[in-house]
Amino acid sequence: MEAGNQTAVLKFILLGLSEDVDLQPLLFGLFLYMYLVCVIGNLLIILAISLHSHLHTPMYFFLSNLSLSDIGFTSTTVLKMLVNIQTQTNSITYEGCLTQMYFFMIFAGLDNLLLTVMAYDRFVAICHPLHYTVIMNPCLCVLLLLLSWLICLTYSLLQSLMVLRVSFCKETEIPHFFCELTQILKLACSDTLVNDILLYFVSGLLGVIPLTGILYSYSKIISCIMGISSVAGKYKAFSTCGSHLLVVSLFYGVGLGVYLTSGTTHPSRKGSIASVMYTVVTPMLNPFIYSLRNRDMKGALRRLFRSGAYSP
């Protein structure tokens, strides 16, 4: 294939989930519905936490930021796909593709790190309850949030700048519904060894270290719960981290499956269909998991709806 400088690549072609014209209205309606459920659900979580002072604790502080990150995560990918379906186009500009890739990596990384921080919060709450307010003080919570943002912004910016040095072939079709870094690098005609090394090294660090931290935290949590004599005490302790554990399992289980399949030499639409679970379904389910399995959140949402119903 004839290679060309990246500045000559004016657009990429997003092949999407299907080329069947008859399926496009169905896909548009389905993804619009899932996107609205995701945004409204996460906004309700943020609003309930903001309006109820008894939820102004470290756990709910991080939960509200996770909901905000999920909104950005889904908006980055789904909105462009909905626009493409509605306008019957499947192209995205070179600049737009890099921008989408940049924000996708930010919010995906932020979800990862926030889940790790929330695991640490549950570890302190269950294993060191008497020192919880001292350890998880507001300054530490803000510092952990800012550190998570800084890591994600730096990593995403570094990866995006590295893509700028890559030249692409004339064939710029991406078998996906959004611009993903691994798929973009597979279109390159120039050498991407440095990009691949950086991708797998940093992604490994951002994947292995947080996951190790989560597993360590929960190993200590389970050990502490097993040491509680009463059944009621065990249930109460586990109920405080059950929702988070379910979200972590969903996030890492689906994400790991998607990225193991995306590493194949010949990408196909099967990978993009699997990515729907990772990029749309999981952020959509998070508000339901936290609200249905958490007594405080259910109470806050109930009062929120009641206040809205009685407001003029």
UniProtKB/TrEMBL annotation:
GO cellular component, one term: plasma membrane
Coiled-coil ranges from the UniProt annotation: none
One Gene Ontology molecular-function label: olfactory receptor activity
Protein location: Cell membrane; Membrane
Membrane-crossing residue ranges in chain numbering: 26-49, 61-82, 102-120, 132-158, 197-216, 237-260, 272-292
Superkingdom as given in the UniProt entry: Eukaryota
Keyword Transmembrane among UniProt keywords: yes
Cited PROSITE patterns: G_PROTEIN_RECEP_F1_1, G_PROTEIN_RECEP_F1_2
Keyword field: Cell membrane, G-protein coupled receptor, Membrane, Olfaction, Receptor, Sensory transduction, Transducer, Transmembrane, Transmembrane helix
Pfam families reported in the protein's UniProt record: 7tm_4
Membrane topology category: Multi-pass membrane protein
The G-protein coupled receptors family 1 profile domain, residue ranges: 41-290
Family of this protein: Belongs to the G-protein coupled receptor 1 family.
Function: Putative odorant or sperm cell receptor.
Protein name stated in the entry: Olfactory receptor
UniProt source species: Vulpes vulpes (Red fox)
Gene: LOC112909710
